[in-house]
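Progress report, Aim 2. The chain analyzed during this reporting quarter is listed below.
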Amino acid sequence: MERRRRPEGDCAPRRVPGIVRGVMRVSFHPDYRADLPASHPYPMGKYPLLHERLLTAGLITAADVDTPEEAPLAMLARVHTRDYLDRLAGDALSAAEQRRLGLPWSARLWRRARLAVHGTWLAAEAALREGLAANLAGGTHHAFAGHGEGFCVLNDVAIAIRRLQAEQRAARALVVDLDVHQGNGTASIFADAPDVYTLSLHGERNYPARKARSTLDVGLPDGAGDAAYLAALDGALGTALAAGPFDIAFFVAGVDVVAGDRYGRLAVSVEGLHRRERLVLTALRTLPTVIVLGGGYAATSLHTAQLHAIVFEEAAALGRTTEQRQ
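Predicted structure tokens for the chain:
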């Protein structure tokens, strides 16, 4: 049955009938939100707002929420250099490094970054058990092994993948990165790594100015709308999945592709975002899949959270729960 289109401005939570438990396990911690100066553009408020929205819509229940702890340094060191981690832990980032990061160092920020890493790890464990799980943060794909940039302190997806591989719980991983900004940190970390396939579909002329090399990069022109975006995505997913098999997939579900995003420069509609999430979740249906948020810079934190909720709405509509959860 064809789903009825709704007005683009309608952002009321979609309550999905018949769900007794939520559509998936999620990781969340109240300290995913760290204090920033009032003038700072990063929407820290989206994390608790998304958590509240999913509960209100019945897409998750309190029993579905896993509470992360601070990831230990040994886990972070699977990807990041000891020098970088020591400087983060010791409040030793230079002013230039903090400008590159785009965030002022604080003990709360350092704690938040480690919580988010562990949240992605918990979601990966849940996805291996149940087929689909999410971290209500994460997707910090601009973090390199030896530095952070673009609001990204630690690369949660890369750390989770390397731990899974070290523990022999997954041999090959697929990263589907649909943030509007290329996942340069992730691409760099896994450069020439045959056990990780990185797909990045992004704005070609957007940040970062100098792109890293993913396994598959698909750059789109400014102003690309639904038709061009979805056609490019469909082709890219086909190419990536043909390079399998994979044991797990990580979906960086950035919503900064939507028209009007402060840093996006594309023109995907809200309905187009629904179609994107449906396309990805359907393509990855046979793979354990971890959803992480990635970026989103709508006019308000509330609107950004509403856009992030769409992937959960689509997962519920597609029935991406598993028999283990019944």
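Confidence is low (pLDDT under 50) at residues 1-20, 322-326. Strands lie at 25-27, 65-66, 132-135, 173-177, 196-203, 216-220, 248-252, 289-292. These observations will guide the mutagenesis work planned for the next reporting period.
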